[in-house]
Specification:
Blueprint (H helix, E strand, L loop, with lengths): L1 E7 L2 E6 L9 E10 L2 H7 L10 E2 L3 E6 L8 E4 L2 E2 L5 H4 L10 E2 L12 E5 L3 E3 L6 H4 L2 H17 L5 E5 L3 H12 L4 E5 L3 H11 L2 E3 L6 E6 L4 H10 E9 L11 H6 L3 E4 L5 H13 L8 E5 L3 H9 L7 E5 L2
Parallel strand pairs: 11-12, 11-14, 12-13, 14-15, 15-16, 17-18
Antiparallel strand pairs: 1-2, 1-4, 3-5, 3-9, 3-18, 5-6, 6-10, 7-8
Helix pairs in contact: 4-5, 4-9
GO molecular function, one term: oxidoreductase activity
Pfam family, one: ADH_zinc_N
Keywords: Metal-binding, Oxidoreductase, Zinc
Length: 323
């Protein structure tokens, strides 16, 4: 099969590699759509030691089962493979499983390829009529669905929410907030082209800089500068939900957070139920028309990464097509 391989920082190759073999309880899936995630970009830049080269990246995928009695079944993929037996898994917090694996991170190759093998429990059937390019968005949407769900446990019934970052995770957070009944959502996005895209296509309230205070602040970027914004804009008694993994240190005003009893929640991926709930919301149309991505072929993947690196992409998401 053909795959897009991360070979070294800012170097991707498109070439033949062995086709994966489905193990017990797994299906071989023909990948029809796979999105480029911010974590893929971090690996591409050489900033993620968990993803050493050479490696097939990509974990936001949807496709069709090609073997066995379920041949032809259209599925979207939960890329987080967990043990199912530990205390975290038994408590429904699979994202905290000590044995968790995710495709695109050793020992599991990713989905920037024509085929991928996944366990049955990681697959959600996609109804006819839902394009697989949109079904591939279930994974980034689930990241933000999980984050927003946790925020609403701290501040139920918020009046105002701020999302820092208008990329796919930030936009997904805005969509999740709206789907869960929050009406006053503002998105901060410094890139003018992306800001215009979001305002035109997604009709979100998008600004270059935020002012005022918010019940919920979602940091979908994770840099010191965005954490500084988050800790300044959370209201007393509010909550900051940190999703982005841009850099490790700096930015938070811990003194203000302490004196104003601002809750900080770090969030990682999603539970199995979050993923399934998100997929159903996507299928039901509760997350909008999902027209905020552009598609390119997998053999154009290296150019797509370079364009993202250069800030030339207005759409929050690029979805690659292997066929």
């Amino acid at each position: 099969m053909k795959a897009l391989i991360y070979d070294a920082p800012e170097r991707l190759g498109f070439r033949e590699v062995p086709e994966p073999v489905a193990g017990p309880g797994e299906h071989l899936i023909r990948v029809e759509a796979v999105g480029i995630c911010g974590s893929d970009m971090h690996a591409y830049l050489g900033h993620d030691d968990r993803r050493p080269a050479p490696l097939i990246l990509g974990h936001e995928a949807a496709g069709v089962i090609v073997e066995g009695p379920d041949k032809g079944r259209r599925v979207t993929i939960n890329p987080l493979v967990t043990c199912g037996d530990c205390a975290a898994c038994m408590a429904g917090r699979e994202n905290l499983c000590e044995a968790r694996q995710i495709i695109s991170m050793p020992p599991r190759e990713g989905a920037f390829a024509q085929f991928v093998a996944m366990p049955e429990r990681n697959l959600v059937t996609v109804p006819e009529g839902v394009p697989l390019e949109r079904a591939a968005l279930a994974e980034p949407l689930a990241v933000s669905w999980h984050a927003v769900r946790l925020a609403l446990q701290v501040v139920p019934g918020p009046d105002r929410a701020l999302v820092v970052g208008g990329g796919a995770i930030g936009l997904a957070a805005a969509l999740a907030l709206s789907a869960m009944g929050v009406t006053g959502v503002t998105v901060v996005e410094p890139n003018a082209a992306r800001r215009d895209f979001l305002a035109a296509v997604c009709r979100d309230h998008v600004v270059a800089e935020a002012d005022g205070l918010f019940d919920i602040v979602v940091d979908a970027v994770g840099y010191a500068a965005t954490r500084k914004v988050a800790s300044a804009r959370a209201r007393p008694g509010g909550v900051i939900v940190h999703v982005g993994l841009g850099e490790d240190m700096g930015g938070l005003d811990v003194r203000r957070m302490t004196l104003q009893e601002i809750t900080f929640i770090g969030t990682y991926t999603y539970t199995d139920q979050d993923f399934r709930d998100t997929a159903q919301a996507l299928f039901d149309g509760r997350l909008g028309r999902l027209e905020w991505f552009e598609t390119r072929s997998l053999d154009e993947g290296a150019a797509a990464f370079a364009d993202l690196r250069a800030g030339k992409v207005a759409a929050p998401k690029i979805v690659l097509k292997p066929w």
